[in-house]
Amino acid sequence: MSVDKQLLSKLLVLDEVGIPLDSRNILGDESYGLIGIRPQHGTVANVMDILKSNVDLGAIMLYENYHGTPSEGISLARRIHAVRPELPLFLRRDAEASVAGLNPKDAALFRCAFTLENPEPLRATLDSSIFNRIYPTSLVRGLAEMTRTALASLFTNCDIEVETPYLIKDRIIYGEVFTLIALESHWCRGYMMLQGEENALMGLVRAQAGEKGEGLTFRDLNSSLGEATNLVWGAFKNRYVNHSSDQNSPLQTQVPIIINHQRRYISFGADDPQLCLKYWLREQGHPDAAPVPLYQRFVFNLNWSPDAFSENPSVESMCDSGELELF
Amino acid sequence: MAQILMVDDSSTVRNEVCDFLKANGLTVTPAVDGKDGLDKLRADPSIRLVLSDVNMPNMDGLTMAEKIRNELKNASVHVIMLTTENSPAMKERGKAAGIKGWIVKPFNGTAVLPTLKKLAC
Q: Do A160 and A280 form a contact (C-beta atoms < 8 A)?
């Protein structure tokens, strides 16, 4: 597990420059955890396919002369913005680190424009739009630990691995099944989601059930993921919620959550980067079996006060899970 | 006729716990929430032990425990909570309702089986 590493964010790079475009090469240092990914083919269709299939992007960087001419680069920006307006678009230019020369409508497509010689506008935009939230390392580590424990208790036939956590701006839902539960304490208010592919996860559930597996349906998978969510929620409360001071107030705010099924889109009303952890579930004894991904997203859209973050000091004295505490 | 009433809204947990207890020679009746649990307990006076989740729709497990004592006037059945909750305030409420014990999920059958058998027989 590598959850103690710096938080990352994936940058879709639409640029023909011959160097890897990561934090070191764009910004001259590695203080930003940018991971550049490029389309296999530079065609518009390929780019749009990537946007349909990738659900965990942090932003997109576009070279103004992508495909040879400024008009084609801007045309692509318009199409990207139409389908994924939540993703920040950064424009790399040859001569001027600004949107000067673009008409106002096109200029508004981009969060910033920069050049390789002058990446400061990009740095400032990253500070304000992606890496503008502090997620305490101990919190991220704790979330990964409690989730791995929950998944391991339910998918007992699987080894569970977690990738380095990263930040996303995406609002696309992965897979066909997801769970959603509120997380609330004096330092945070928001939601946790688990997202996965039904068929792949059903395969794991059926394999674990053995002879009974054939009789299982999607409802059994729903129940397993629901219980995984419940276990994480309970562990979160026990570890991070101060039971004496975290009293629910009837006046607490809420905002509508909007889901568009056709577009596999979910919005929590806030534009802040979400913390994403990706788990891989691999069936034990089947080294050749494809691991099954499960995405976990934390969206603290109603309150985020990491300065007040604390672990429950009494957590160590509480009884261990699974043991009976008699009164 | 059952020895144990297993109350949980999650079919995953219900099936896991019921299968484990049956495999170890105990008779179990499942219920999907506190309201269903009260109905099942009312209908089967042979139940000796209630194993229940806390957070459930329709009626939560602690409310069910309170009603077992106050409405059903059943002081003999043992109630144990099986839940993700671990807060002192919840446990105090459970104690006031006369519950016998508390297990934090996930369920570890082997660790608790001897005590469950003792309470159910």
A: yes
Cα separation of the two ends of chain A: 38
What's the CATH code of the domain at B23?
Answer: 3.40.50.2300
CA angle in degrees (0–180, nearest 5) for A225-A282-A8: 80
Write out the two tokens for B12: 């995953």
How large is the angle between the packed helices A44-53 and A70-83, nearest 10 degrees? 30
Label residue A228 exposed, middle or buried (CB < 10 Å: 0-12, 13-18, 19+). buried
**pLDDT tens-place string over residues A130-176:** 887 888 888 999 999 999 999 999 999 999 999 889 999 889 999 99
E strand or H helix at B39: helix B34-43
Distance CA B67, CA B110 (A): 30
B residues 15-44 closer than 8 Å to A (CB): none
B10 closest CB neighbour out of A150, A223, A322: A223
Locate the chain B residue with the closest alpha carbon to A240: B87
Whether residue B88 is preceded by a cis peptide bond, meaning omega within 30 degrees of 0, is: no
Task: Look at residue A195 and tell me whether its pLDDT is greater than 60.
Answer: yes
Domain A9-129 CATH class label: alpha beta
Residue A97: strand, helix, or coil: coil
Bridge partner list, A11: A36, A59
Q: Which of A20, A2, A16, A37 is nearest to A163 (CA)?
A: A2
**Closest B-chain CA to A318:** B86
In percent, how much of chain A has pLDDT > 70? 89
Could you state, in order of their start, the residue ranges of all structural domains in chain A?
9-129, 137-317
- Its ipTM equals 0.85
Q: Report the CATH architecture of A137-317.
A: 3-Layer(aba) Sandwich (3.40)
Residues in chain A within 8 Å Cβ distance of B22? none
**Chain B closest-CA separation from residue A213 CA (Å):** 13
Q: Is A213 helix (H, G, I), strand (E, B) or coil?
A: helix
Q: What is the pLDDT of residues B84-98, one digit of tens each?
A: 988 888 899 999 999
CB A234 within 8 A of CB B82: no
Structural domain of B103: 4-120
Residues of A in Cβ contact (< 8 Å) with B13: 227
Residue type present at position A128: S
Say if CB B78 and CB B94 are below 8 A apart.
no
Q: What is the pLDDT of residue A18?
A: 61
Look up tokens 């390392």; give the residue: A137
Write out chain A residues lying below 8 Å of B89, CB-based: 243
